[in-house]
Design a protein that fits this description.
D-amino Acid Aminotransferase, Chain A, domain 1; single chain; eight-stranded antiparallel beta sheet; 17 strands; 7 helices; 30% strand; alpha+beta
Length: 304
C-alpha cells in the first residue's frame, strides 16, 4: 500500500492521517466538484532543519483561483499557513509531494456549487521520480483534451481528470508510458498531467495558454528561465507532425519535473537534448536553493 506522511491537514488542523476521514456521501466524491494542487517539498541540502518549496506563492495562487472557479473562497494565506503547519508536524526527511484539495464537503445529491459547504484538506506522500528521467514513450491519445467552454481548464478541477485517466490508461495498456492529447482543434495540448515543449532549430516552442492546457507552473518557470538563458521561446499552436521531426521534445510538471520524450507512436526521437539538458540542470539547482539568481522562487520553511 502507498505510504503517506503521518499527519494530514483536515477541517482546519493537523490530524493523524488515519483520522482524516470523509463520508461515502461526500458530494465531491460523486460529482468531481473539487480542485487540487500538487507541490514538491524537498529537504534543504544546506540546512537539515529546513525544507524547500518551489514557487509556493504560484501554487497557492492557482489553487485559490481554482477554488474561485468552484465558486468558493480559499485564500492564499490559508493555503500557505496550512502547508507550513503540516510540514512542521511531519518534519519530512525525504522529497515529498503535497496534495492540497478543496472540495464540496456536504453530504447528499444534486450537482451544484451554490448552497453547499466546502472544505480544504492536504495530505503528503514521499515522491521520487514520477516518470523515468531517461525518457518516456508517448502515444497520441484517442481522447481529446476538454475545452475551456465546457470546463474551467485554468483550475485543476478534479472531475477533469477523467480524461487524463482514460488517456493515461489507454497509453499504458497499448504499450506506451504516457499520453499526448490533442485539443478539439487538432493541435497538441498537453500530456495526462504535464505540459509539452519542443525544440526546433534552437527555438523552444510550447502550446500557448489558448490551446486548452493547464497553465503549468513548471511550464511558466521554464519559459522564464529560457529567456534569461538567451533561448528564444515561442508560444503557438503545435501540430502533431512537428513532434516527429523536432530536435527535442520534453514534458514539464511538478511531478514529472523535466522528462524527455524518446518515442512518439512509432517514431524514435533524437537522444541528444542539449537545450533540455541545460534547462534541466538549471532548474534542478534552482529547486535545491542553489541558484542565487532565482532565490525568490524558493521558500525555505523552518521545521522547528
Ligand atoms: C493536466 C496537467 N497539465 C500540466 C501540469 C503541470 O503543471 P505544474 O507544472 O504546475 O505542475 C499538471 C500538473 O499539475 C497537470 O495536471
Amino acid at each position: 500500500m502507498q505510504q503517506f506522511l503521518p499527519y494530514a491537514w483536515f477541517q482546519g488542523q493537523c490530524v493523524p492521517f488515519e483520522e482524516a476521514r470523509i463520508s461515502i456521501a461526500t458530494h465531491a466524491l460523486h460529482y468531481g466538484t473539487g480542485a487540487f494542487g500538487g507541490m514538491r517539498a524537498i529537504p534543504d541540502p544546506q540546512n537539515e532543519d529546513t525544507v524547500l518549496l518551489f514557487r509556493a506563492d504560484r501554487h497557492a495562487r492557482r489553487l485559490s483561483q481554482s477554488a474561485r472557479l468552484l465558486l468558493t473562497e480559499l485564500t492564499e494565506e490559508t493555503i500557505l499557513g496550512a502547508i507550513t503547519a503540516l510540514l512542521k508536524a511531519n518534519k519530512p526527511t525525504q522529497p515529498i509531494y503535497l496534495r492540497p484539495f478543496v472540495y464540496t464537503s456536504d453530504l447528499g445529491i444534486a450537482p451544484r456549487l451554490h448552497n453547499i459547504e466546502t472544505d480544504f484538506l492536504i495530505y503528503a506522500l514521499p515522491l521520487g521520480d514520477y516518470l523515468s528521467p531517461e525518457g518516456v514513450s508517448c502515444r497520441i491519445s484517442s481522447w481529446t483534451r476538454q475545452e475551456d467552454r465546457s470546463l474551467p481548464l485554468r483550475g485543476k478541477i478534479s472531475g477533469a481528470y477523467i480524461t487524463s485517466s482514460l488517456a493515461k490508461t489507454e497509453a499504458v495498456q497499448s504499450g506506451f508510458d504516457e499520453a499526448l492529447l490533442l485539443n478539439s482543434r487538432g493541435k497538441i495540448s498537453e500530456a495526462s498531467g504535464m505540459n509539452l515543449f519542443l525544440v526546433r532549430d534552437g527555438q523552444l516552442i510550447t502550446p500557448g495558454v489558448d490551446q486548452d492546457i493547464l497553465e503549468g507552473i513548471t511550464r511558466a518557470s521554464v519559459i522564464e528561465l529560457a529567456k534569461t538563458m538567451d533561448i528564444p521561446v515561442v508560444e503557438r499552436p503545435v501540430d502533431k507532425t512537428e513532434l516527429m521531426i523536432a530536435d527535442e521534445v520534453f514534458l514539464t510538471g511538478t511531478a514529472a519535473k523535466i522528462t524527455p520524450i524518446r518515442q512518439i507512436e512509432t517514431t524514435t526521437l533524437n537522444s541528444e537534448r542539449p537545450v533540455m539538458k541545460a534547462l534541466k540542470e538549471r532548474l534542478v539547482a534552482i529547486t535545491q536553493g542553489l541558484d542565487p539568481a532565482f532565490e525568490h522562487w524558493v521558500s525555505r520553511i523552518s521545521l522547528s
